[in-house]
Amino acid sequence: MTIATFACAISVLALLLVLAAWRDDHLISSDMGVTSAEVLSAGTLRSAVTFVTPDGETHNPKVGVLYPTKLTQGERINVEYRRGDPDLVRVAGRDARVAVVPALSVILVAWLVAIPVLWLLGSPPKGWFGAARRRWSRSRVAG
């Protein structure tokens, strides 16, 4: 796998994560319930919560709560969940916009690493655009 392919793959994965977050937000917003929850464990990537829905059922989503940053164990927070699937839950007031900056940061770092490596391996940017132009002109002539 080339360096450019690796950087492209990382970029695509980061964009897919943001799209998945927006999809989850849409699902929650289209069938939203709101309640308070207790934070059972808090981490930077995953936090576990427990909450009770209006039907009296207690829920502890296996994958945790979406957008869990800056939570502390034992804290009471408001959460928004999908009534049809209470395991899909997010911290109230947070949405996919929280995921945009980290995703863009990952993409930026991937390319800040890839571009100098490509350059050092003897593939300067001028060559990248020339190769793309040649491929494009060949496809136009053939098509």
Helices and strands in order:
Layout: H1 3-30, E1 32-41, E2 48-52, E3 58-59, E4 76-82, E5 85-91, H2 97-120, H3 125-142
Antiparallel strand pairs: 1-2, 1-4, 2-3, 4-5
Helix pairs in contact: 1-2
Task: Sum this structure up briefly.
The chain is an alpha+beta fold and 143 residues long. 49% of the residues lie in helices and 22% in strands. The chain has a 5-stranded antiparallel beta sheet, covered by helices on one side.
General description of the model:
With 143 residues, the chain is α+β, with helices and mostly antiparallel strands. The protein has helices spanning 3-30, 97-120, 125-142, and strands at residues 32-41, 48-52, 58-59, 76-82, 85-91. Strands 3-2-1-4-5 form a five-stranded antiparallel β-sheet, covered by helices on one side. The longest helix is centred in the N-terminal third of the chain and has 28 residues, at 3-30. The model has no long low-confidence stretch (mean pLDDT 89).
Distance between the termini: 29 Å
The amount of helix comes to 40-55%
Tally of contiguous helical segments: 3
Q: In sequence order, what are the helices and strands, one letter per element? A: HEEEEEHH
What is the residue-averaged pLDDT? 89
Record field, number of beta strands: 5
Q: How much beta, percentage-wise?
A: 15-25%
How would you write the strand order of the largest sheet? 3-2-1-4-5
Quick tags:
5-stranded antiparallel β-sheet, 143 residues, 5 strands, 3 helices, 22% strand, alpha+beta
